[in-house]
Amino acid sequence: MATTYKNLIDYHLKSLEQKSNSSSFEQVKRNHLTALRSFISYTGQSDTSPVGLEMTADFAQSLKSHLFASKISVRSQTDRKCLLNSWRESYLTMNAEPILRIGRERRRATETPIEQNPFEMLLWNSLKASKLSPKTAARLAGISTSAIGRWSRGALPNARTSESLYKLDSVLDLSKGTLLASFQQATGKSSNTPTNEYRNRQKINTSMRFCIGIDDIRPALLNEWKAHLTFKTAAHTGHLTRGNSGRWSLVEERNSAIKPSAFTSVGKCVSPSASILWTRTSSFLGYLRLPVAAGGFGLSDETAQSLGWFAVPEAIEGYTEF
């Protein structure tokens, strides 16, 4: 039986927690997750993707290519290699069967992909029948190649992308509305095509309260943000590199209209840039934990709360489309 990276993460972290000192577990956990997500992002996968040969027969080559492309120091490459080897060991102990992928599509050696929803199954079969790759179909339809790549690997489209689905219907020689109907079947919802899709989408999204609130913040995310705030406002960054215009200015609290908080304050000063960027960050991370049926990325609250997601192109592209 195959499994997803999300299941592997749950399994690996549970094992890791049993072996780690309680005081150091959070940092160890972050290191392991950073290594895995960098690797699976490089191979074109996400948390919801099924684990494939990149963790078994192709692991050595995939790891070598990933480390070469990462452009990190030799010492960091050694650490990354060690961490990824531990992820592979965890996967092997799960006794799961890897998925064989063809390009952006996925399949088993002898049967159809596991846990296919109706939309994915229809898209998979239609692409196969048309003899088109997801990327080619997307270009012919004039829609996002990354979006259709995610859909063909099991993700559901944004609930308000009906026009894109209609274009794809035409390319795949399907009756208009076929893919939309399949999507509605997968989510258990139906909707009418909006007369002005963009305005309706913006109206709905701006009215949703999906941003991460102050009371929802987990300690790990707060620590990440404080470290980032310190880096962006410090006069000197040590061995770390920061662009010439990458430093955030500070204003004394008494001269600023910005309310001091853990997300904006450095000593007795506040950073206007930090206030703006935190608002955007809370929106992005809030999107990540929105259910897929609501147009979100579908992560758990704990998994979503990490600045590391800014390094995952799939998450950024999904948020931009949202």
Give a quick precis of the structure.
By secondary structure, this protein is mainly alpha-helical. The protein has 14 helices and five strands. The strands form two sheets. It has a three-stranded antiparallel beta sheet.
Describe the structure.
The protein is mainly alpha-helical and about 325 residues long. It has helices at about 5-20, 25-40, 60-70, 75-95, 120-130, 135-140, 145-150, 160-170, 180-185, 195-205, 220-235, 270-290, 300-305, 315-320, and strands spanning about 100, 105, 250, 265, 270. Strand 4 and strand 5 form a beta hairpin. Helix 1 (about 5-20) runs antiparallel to helix 2 (about 25-40), helix 6 (about 135-140) crosses helix 7 (about 145-150) and helix 6 (about 135-140) crosses helix 8. The chain is globular and about 65 Å long.
